[in-house]
Every structure is written in C-alpha cells, then in structure tokens.
Amino acid sequence: MYSQRTRRYPPHSQSRPRTPLYTSGPSSYFSPDMYGPQPFSCSDWEQPGVLSDYYEPPHERSNSSRAGTVTPTAALLSPKPELGLVFTRIAPAIVSACEKPDMLGSALPNVRSPCWKDLRSPVARTSATTDSPKPVVPAAPKPEPAPHVPKLSFAFSLNFDTDKNALISFKNSITSDTNAILSINWSQNTSVCNWIGVSCGLKHGRVTALNLPRYDLAGTVAPHLGNLSFLRYLDISSNSFVGMLSFELSKLRRLKVMNLGANSFTGEIPTWLGSLPQLEELYLYNNSFLGKIPSSLFNNSKLQMLQILHLYSNKLSGSIPHVIFNVSSLREIRIGINSLSGRLPIDMCNNMPNIKFLALSWNQLEGQIPSNIWKCTHLDVLSLSFNNFSGSIPRETGRLSMLTKLHLGYNSGFQGGVPPEIGNLSRLEILGIGNASLTGIIPSSIFNMSYLEKLYLGDNKLTDLK
Q1: Do 184 and 244 belong to one domain?
Q2: Nearest Cα residue to 380 out of 358, 351, 353
C-alpha cells in the first residue's frame, strides 16, 4: 500500500495519465478514416499511467493517508519500577521476619539490619516502639539500561538519507524545470515524503513512488535513482528526458510499474529490465529506442509477472522475439509504429491465455496471420493493419467472441474475401479491413453484429452483398 505524503498535484498531473496507443486511445483507435493517429484524454491516475479500459491496478495505490513519523524509541524504553509498591507488598513478611531474625537472615541474606521497620505498613509503623533501632533504607535498585536506541535511529537516518540523496541527485540532473516544481517544492529543509510527486510507505517511511508525469522536466535520469530500494512505482512520462537508461536502475528490485513513455530516451532497450522480478507494467513508448527487441528480456528472465508491455512508436527493427508470446501473464502487447519485420509464430496464441490487447500495426510484418489466433480467447482489440500480411483472413477470427475492435486494413497482400464467420463477432464495434486487396462478395452476416459502429471496407475489389 502506498501513502501519499505529497501536496495535491496540479490538475494536469493529479492523476496518472493514460498511456496513448500510437497517440490514440482504445475507444478511438484511429481517426475517423480509421488509420490516422488521434489523441485521447487521460484517465484518473489511481491506475498509474495506463489505459483504464484494459488495466486493473495490481498495487491499489492510496494517496489519501499520511505516513506516521517513525519513533521506535518510545516503544523500546522500559518503565521505571514502582519501588514503593514492591516494598509495601513485602512489608508484612518483613514484620514477621523481624520477630524471627534467623528467618530474616535465611530469607534475605544480603540485608544488613535485622529489621526494616520503616518499610512496614502504616499500622505496623505506629505499633513500633520508640526505642526501635533506626531503620536502614536500602538504596533503590539501579534500573536496567534502556536499549541502545541511537544505533536504531542511526540506521533509520541512513535509510532516509539514502532516499533523500537519491532524489537530490535526480533533481540536480534536471536541466529545465519550466514550472519550477522541483526547485521550489523539493526543499532540503522538509521531509522528502512531503515533496510533490513523492510518496512514502506507512511501515518504513521509505520512498515507494515517484510520480512526475507531464511536468515539463528536461534532463537525464540520474543513476542514483537506483538507490530508492523501496520504490515500486516510477512515472516520469511525457517530459523531455534524454540519454540512455543507466544500469543502476536495475537495483529497483521492488519496482512494479516503470513508465518512461513520451520522452527522448535513446539507445537499445536494456536487457537488465528482464531482471526486475516484480515488474508488472513497462512503458517505453514514444521514445527513440533503436535496435532489436532483446530476446533475453523474455527468455529465462524474471519477468514472470509482466502484464503490460508498451514499446510502440520507437525506432525498433528486426523480428519480434517469439519468446515474447510465451509470457503467459501478458494482457497487453503494443509494439506498433516501429520497423519490425518477419513473421508471427504459428503457435502465437498457445501460451497467452490472458492477452486482451494485441497491437502490431505500422510495421513491416509479413506472412499469414496465424490460424490459431482464436486461442487468444480474451482478445478485446486486435490491430494488425499497415503491414505486409498475405494469404487469407483466417476464418478462425470469427471465434474471438470478446473482440470489440478488429483492424486488418492496409495489408496489400491479402487474398480472397471477407470470411462470413466475421459475422459471429457479436460484440464488435469497429471493423476495419479497407485497402486490403479483398475480392468477392460482402457477406450479409456482418449485419448481424448489432454493436457495430464503424465499418471500413473501402479500396477493395468487393462486389455485392451475399
């Protein structure tokens, strides 16, 4: 759980932004002509940085409570002994023992005086004779030393200083802070948990989230950010960060969400991302990453919890690693608007039971669409447009009963017509297969789709309805 110990964010960043798909959202995947990019609005960011239509926040962040101050010393200090109460309780025994000195000597061998009349009860004291010897009052026992709290406090201080120093290094790497958010609010005289965009956990008071999307920040990401060992959520999307991602960020072993989208990061996608065992969401969209998608990122990696992968709108090339389709936890794969080539594996959907959103448009993919596509039974959006796919549209596509959006247009290598099984997609809202070299008759079954809102069949060689 997260405790937001920050000020309320400005309206433009109070909520975590939806992640755009090719700068277009799932409900309006393309512009009215189906294929032009179209922006969409951001959602409430209790669901950090993703599309609320397809995202269920695994971490259930709460920004409503404040973490309490850690004061371990109070709980560790022992109370002072109640000496008066103790001696009052043993007074009757001492009175009896005074009458029998030998018993007193055996019971209390360290007592110097044969009688402690002053420790008796008030009744016993009033009955004592005036010529009784002056009582000897023992010194109060020394209290046990309190636990050595300074070491504990010092350890806590070191941890807090580590987080603070990491954030200060991050701030110092910022070359432009247009709105003076960090320069004004991130004061070293206040707790980091009160800094805007910073959240701390309730248990340890450590930094667990850094949420700075759309703050008009520019600069590089300091490697010291990897020292935030309790960080679970990192969102610096929609800024102007540049450079390559430092290997030091691989130390963020508790990280669940990494959103670096819509910046200007360069270089290859780092392979160390595959060593983040708790990572559930990875957003690297709208950057300048180049080269191949590293297969080692998914092959024998620790990304067993990865659910969302957004790599679209970069400069990636080469083929899509087939091992990516073996990550059974994936719900969203968006790697369009790149220069990816090659064929899709024929068993693509054998190991993806949870996939809901598969977007590979605007690449150079070729070959046939795998006929086992129907095994991706939970698919809600399938976008394969603007590629070089050939062959016929698989009839098995009609078995995707959960599908609401199907984009297959602008694949000039298709042969044949529209399979009548498409009409079985009773939930389909958008069907786009324009400019796909289709021939034959338009099946009348497509008019059985009662939820259909947009139908694009233009620029084909289709004839009448059947």
Answers
A1: yes
A2: 358
